[in-house]
Amino acid sequence: MNPIPIPEDRHFRPRLLGYDPQKSRPWLERLVYSAYVFVFWLIVIGTYAGVPALFEALGWNAGWGFVLMRALQVVLLFLLSAVIALLLILVLRKYLGKVQERYGPMHYGPAGGIQTVFDALKLLAKEDFVPAAADVLTFRLAPAVTFVASFAMFAVVPFASGWVLADTNVGLIYLIAVSTLSAYGVLLGGVSSGNKWALIGALRAGAQMVSYEIPLALVFLTVAVWAGSLSLGRIVDAQLGLWNVLPLALSFVLYVIASLAELKHIPFDFPEAESELIAGYNVEYSGMSFAFFFLAEFVELFLLPALIVVFFFGGWHGPLFGLEPGSLAAGALESLYFTVKTAVWVWIFLWIRATLPRYRDDQLMEFAWKAMIPLALFGLVLAAYLRLIWR
Amino acid sequence: MSTMSLEPVRGRTDEMIVNMGPQHPATHGVLRVVLGLEGERITRAVPHIGYLHRNHEKIEEARSYPQVIAYTDRMDYVSGTQNELPFVLAVEDMLGIEVPDRAKKIRTMFFELYRLASHLVWMGTAMLDLGAISPFLYTFWDREIILGIVEKTAGARMLPNYYTFGGVRRDVHPDFFKDTADFLDHMERRMVDYEHLVLESPVVHARTIGVGVLSKERAIARGVSGPVLRASGVAYDVRKAFPYDAYPDVEFEIPTSPDGDTYARFWVRFQEMYQSIRILRQLVELTPKTGPHKGKAPARIKPPAGERYRAVENSRGELGVLVVSDGTDKPYRVKHRGAAFSNLQIVPDLFVGAKFSDSIAILSSLDPVFGEIDR
Amino acid sequence: MEVRMKQERLFDEDVYTVHPEDYRALCERLAAEGYDFPRAISGLDMGYGLRVTLQLTRMKDLAKVTVRTDVPYEDPVVPSVTDLWPGVEWYEREAYDMLGIRFAGHPDLRRILLEDEWALHPLLKRYDTGGYPLPGWEPAPWPDPEPWTPPPPPEPEPEAEGEASEGGEAS
């Protein structure tokens, strides 16, 4: 039916009027990103190596001193999540700009580098409005629930060997519990807003949660069976020779899909579909309450790719160049490997966001219940069988 | 429009009445649809229009004939000169003005350029409604090139006020034909990208195939026209049925699809873009580079008393106008038959029973433009 | 039934002018003749009364027809044809909105473009563009009815082919 012959160079993309990628100074952009990543890396080193070393030097590593150390680490992690949000929002906007042949933020800071700081300041200065029809207490509480739930996932994520707040032996179960809580915040926020669009968004979030959580839990179980432990540190250790992505390829694919659903990310962003539900559950939020939803979203946009790396891509593993394992230098290098691997996955998620339209909500549910759960169960049995004959 | 006209049913707690629009991002302007929702399923739908009403028809009665042309531009603001043509043709018929062949071809070129522009806007906004942001930016860049070509000749981008009785207002810019040929080269390459991005996307398939099926009989009876009608399998196109301007001189096909669903409407618009490129290619060759751009028209336009209905195939369907003259220099009555106005009437038919997310896809496949619907 | 009407040929359309009482009967006849595509219903203020112009196309052979009927200002009631062609629903509402023509039997005759509480029907010639009454506007006298002559031999009219047939082949 195509009446026009397809040109021979079908991958040639003509550049458009006035768009010159050099004008956005890509080297400066990379410098800005590197600066953010450097700050991120410094905070990670400070949190997991600097603070314990400091407390050990002061002799405060027992009793209340230990509690104080953990508190300081949590404060630093909060700073870390702010850096993550600032960086990821900037990268999202710049990257979407590149894909869409425009520039993105250009004016504040080098190559638009501190635009997001100003945006955050704007949100701080905005009125935190509560609609008359809202249930005030729940309305106020919901963003905090969402943020705290997302933030609490940091506790078990290992940035390098031993660099983790709580390397518990129930890390996976903790993750399931905490990540489910973040959907509660969305539900509460949507229902308490007194807005029908927010209500629909909240209902969709609830329906979405019950459909993706089961395959997600089954994939967690698969990983645990394969590694023989529920601790994230042990799971990473078990991948020393072979990354899980090869033996558990099926579970890996299901995990990425379920992660997209948990992130409420395109193509599964039903609870906040702008073109359908305006903004879904957060339509009535403004100011800092909105900023907390936003912060939670971007913290999760970092944490879920990080978990993909932990479960399937060997976590912090990488060549150490003869550095002594357990030393500060080795830890720093390992956390850099971890950061880079995570960055690749964040980029893949952003790429998906820039490219794909949105599915319909019932299609995800149908897919989750009819395809993902059986496949995840099959993957679990397969992993158990492989482990029996292999190890 | 103060009444909702959709009262909640007493004792029914499973139905929620929501007000989609007029400030809703997916209503392409200012449509308001009052929806009854049962979970995600739409049980009732009542569209309300008129939020952009200016009463063009009354204003046009108080303006002279040449002044009316500028007002017709403001109807379907994404397809520019297409709105001027039915009025111009009707008055030419009443006065018996001869249009030179070259002027006809130039008119047709502008007409098809604006069809491409309008379909590009449709593609971007439809994909935006489906949740993809990037196609919107791509298509608007391409539309920018078309508007640049038009601007060079007509001096304005969206509301060019370019056609006039007997031809076009001024001769084309010397670069016009070269610019158009360059743009067509560019557009052919881009169409490959767009096919990958829209028609071949599995997510688009999942969202549109089998959604909002409009049967052939229902489409005709509802007065639906344009791509929506052709997607239901009716090969009715005013360009072929009642040819005007240079359309008898060029070769093109009318793409139709028997399916009648949202994907068919997407597909038909895509094929129409290919046909527009084909028509423009022929016209770039056929149109004499020099010659008269305007026929002899009287200095004062005073059609004899009488009436005339003329229609053209706008990007959205049959755009008609009924001009009634009483022999003075102002039209006695100008009645526009809006294609999008007629097409929007099937909203309740298609919405009821669909999922809420589907309603967005269906609405964007109808491609309403509220400048024309509300007039 | 036999319809009292005046038939003429205007450009490429057959134009029927009927009495409002016979409007519905003629429309039923046209629907039976296969005119299936409703193009538009237009309301006109003729100075002596209101006119409803219904325009139809037959998709089969692309024959076009226009039906006109005039009603007085005092009682502008025309039977609705939404059951024959659902596509005229909004056009009838528009004619009601703009000129106050009431379509008897319309399922949902509300204002469509203006607010429900709008005070006047703006397209009436007695108002200027600002919506104020024009000073000195008087309705013209009703024109003398032309003597009714029996219509020519019935449908389908052979000359309706004219311009339409080429389009028919092409499509």
Automatic annotation (TrEMBL), chain A:
Among its keywords, does the record have Oxidoreductase? yes
Q: Which reaction does it catalyse?
A: a quinone + NADH + 5 H(+)(in) = a quinol + NAD(+) + 4 H(+)(out)
The EC number of this protein is: 7.1.1.-
| Classification via InterPro entries | NADH_UbQ_OxRdtase_su1/FPO, NADH_UbQ_OxRdtase_su1_CS
Q: Which residues form the signal peptide?
A: none
Q: Which GO terms describe its biological process?
A: aerobic respiration
Cell compartment(s), UniProt: Cell membrane; Membrane
* Record keywords: Cell membrane, Membrane, NAD, Oxidoreductase, Quinone, Translocase, Transmembrane, Transmembrane helix, Ubiquinone
Membrane topology summary: Multi-pass membrane protein
Superkingdom, according to UniProt? Answer: Bacteria
- UniProt xrefs under NCBIfam families: PRK06076.1-2
Q: How does it assemble?
A: NDH-1 is composed of 15 different subunits. Subunits NuoA, H, J, K, L, M, N constitute the membrane sector of the complex.
Main function: NDH-1 shuttles electrons from NADH, via FMN and iron-sulfur (Fe-S) centers, to quinones in the respiratory chain. The immediate electron acceptor for the enzyme in this species is believed to be ubiquinone. Couples the redox reaction to proton translocation (for every two electrons transferred, four hydrogen ions are translocated across the cytoplasmic membrane), and thus conserves the redox energy in a proton gradient. This subunit may bind ubiquinone.
State the protein's name. Answer: NADH-quinone oxidoreductase subunit H
Q: Which organism is it from?
A: Oceanithermus profundus
UniProtKB/TrEMBL annotation, chain B:
Q: Which GO terms describe its molecular function?
A: NAD binding; NADH dehydrogenase (quinone) (non-electrogenic) activity; quinone binding
> What NCBIfam families does this protein's entry cite?
PRK06075.1
* Family of the protein in this entry: Belongs to the complex I 49 kDa subunit family.
Q: What EC numbers are recorded for this enzyme?
A: 7.1.1.-
One family name in Pfam for this protein: Complex1_49kDa
Q: Where in the cell is it found?
A: Cell membrane
Give the main location: membrane
Question: Which InterPro entries would you find in this protein's record?
Answer: NADH_Q_OxRdtase_suD, NDH1_su_D/H, NiFe-Hase_large
Protein topology in the membrane: Peripheral membrane protein
Tell me the protein's name.
NADH-quinone oxidoreductase subunit D
The gene coding this protein: nuoD
Q: Which SUPFAM superfamilies match?
A: HydB/Nqo4-like (SSF56762)
- Domain NADH-quinone oxidoreductase subunit D, first and last residues per copy: 129-299, 300-375
Please provide the record's keywords in A-Z order: Cell membrane, Membrane, NAD, Oxidoreductase, Quinone, Translocase, Transport
Reactions catalysed, as given in the entry: a quinone + NADH + 5 H(+)(in) = a quinol + NAD(+) + 4 H(+)(out)
Question: What does the UniProt record say this protein does?
Answer: NDH-1 shuttles electrons from NADH, via FMN and iron-sulfur (Fe-S) centers, to quinones in the respiratory chain. The immediate electron acceptor for the enzyme in this species is believed to be a menaquinone. Couples the redox reaction to proton translocation (for every two electrons transferred, four hydrogen ions are translocated across the cytoplasmic membrane), and thus conserves the redox energy in a proton gradient.
Domain of life of the source: Bacteria
Indicate the quaternary assembly. Answer: NDH-1 is composed of 15 different subunits. Subunits NuoB, C, D, E, F, and G constitute the peripheral sector of the complex.
The UniProt entry's GO CC annotations, sorted and at most eight, read:
plasma membrane
